Amino acid sequence: MFYELFLRSFADGNGDGIGDFKGATKRLDYLAELGITGIWLLPVMKSPSYHGYTVSDFYSINPSYGTIEDAREFLECAHAKGIKVILDMPLNHTAINHQWFLRALAGDKSHRKKYLWLERPEWLEARRHWDNQGVWSKLNGEYYYALFGPGSPDLNYENPELREEAKRILSFWLSLGFDGFRFDAAKHIFDFSTERGKCEYQHAKNLAFWKEMTEHCRKINPDAIFVSEVWDDPDVVDLYSSIFGIGFNFPLAYAIKESVMELNPNRMVEALYHVMNRYFEDVLQYSSGIFLTNHDMSRLLSYMKGDKEKAHLALSVLLTLPGIPFIYYGEELGMKGEYNEFANEAQLEPFPWFELGSGPMQTEWKAFTSNPPYSGTSYEVQSNESNSYFSKYKNILHFRKNNNWIDSAKILEVKAENNILFISVESKGKVALIVHNFDQKTVILDKKGNIVLINGELSEQKNSFSLGRMSSAMIEQ
Ligand SMILES: [Ca+2]
């Protein structure tokens, strides 16, 4: 079970209000106690942007986060606690102030070949798929390709020397002790056709690129972990996942949140046959990275309009499905944050350790807007209450930790009856029926095995059991 961690917002180790490696190292026990066995670290390289996705030196640590030695110590301490760490690696583009781009602008030939420059005026007509914006930016009278905006010029991996450079970058971080990578924007490496002069995902070329990169990494660490970010239909995601080993299942995230929001388990049944169809088969060559939210989405409690029962039900559904679960930092406290297409600061807020918004190791790099002091969200308040959002969330995480056999389980059957979702899963001869009550009232069901409460209310009678509203349980068969 992975925890997506934004270092800047987590724990401050040197008193400047900015989260860093020293602080996170001291908070590893907190993560281990949650049941976390992996960390996905958002980019930590030198960057002009607060989120770090535009990198200005791929071989450096952002000085705000500490030193290479601090990172090494963090990795060693994580490993000692049985936690693996993968690094977010945005190889698709650089920051505009990366030396490569600055030298390219100054006319240096070898650096110019690292980027894509406008060759034909008609290329200017190209538009990106999701919002019809242009993809060429102009600086010093020259147009360069920058799909995600002027601040992040795309790298041109047609250049074999650049592919070798990318391998050196990956070697650098693996030898420091990282256990693998989350590859950002994986389908965007080749997404502009120079033949047709328009934006087009070139999946075959992308897959060849990633095969080359992952094979290189596996020579250094045969057990390296890779996760791909591909927002697309399940068949496209599968193509990429077969190379990386784990692919984020975006359609599943939407399906769970929508079905719980609408309290419609039928929607979930329909979706599972579509977005988890491989799990109904026997052969599993790769895993789904299953999640509800990430740094590019509204936080769960904001999505659920503050309905805590729904948020816990959604987490329960997620953690009873096969795949590798990813939990976004702060979700366990019920942090809020609405996605805004122009800035994603709202869902990247400081982790509220203290109720008054400051205290030892509390990060304060930005003011709280969605999770203000005295809102009851803090770890300080919730960790001491057995009935808090945090305590319930943690119990659901512990359910999955104690039942991690579900990670590689097969789905035998899913159905919805009387507003109850039934999921039957099997792994190595072990079979369990999972029951999620989407209803507003308690239901009584037949008892056919040992019952484990996942979340909510449960009472057992001789031949039956009662499952409270919005509650979940597992029946071991
Ligand atoms: Ca700091």
UniProtKB/TrEMBL annotation:
Keywords tagged on the record: Carbohydrate metabolism, Glycosidase, Hydrolase
Domain Glycosyl hydrolase family 13 catalytic: from-to ranges: 4-400
GO annotation, biological process: oligosaccharide catabolic process
Pfam families, sorted: Alpha-amylase
Catalytic activity: Endohydrolysis of (1->4)-alpha-D-glucosidic linkages in polysaccharides containing three or more (1->4)-alpha-linked D-glucose units
Gene Ontology molecular-function annotations: alpha-amylase activity; cation binding
EC number: 3.2.1.1
Residue stretches spanning the membrane: none
Similarity comment text for this entry: Belongs to the glycosyl hydrolase 13 family.
Protein name per UniProt: Alpha-amylase
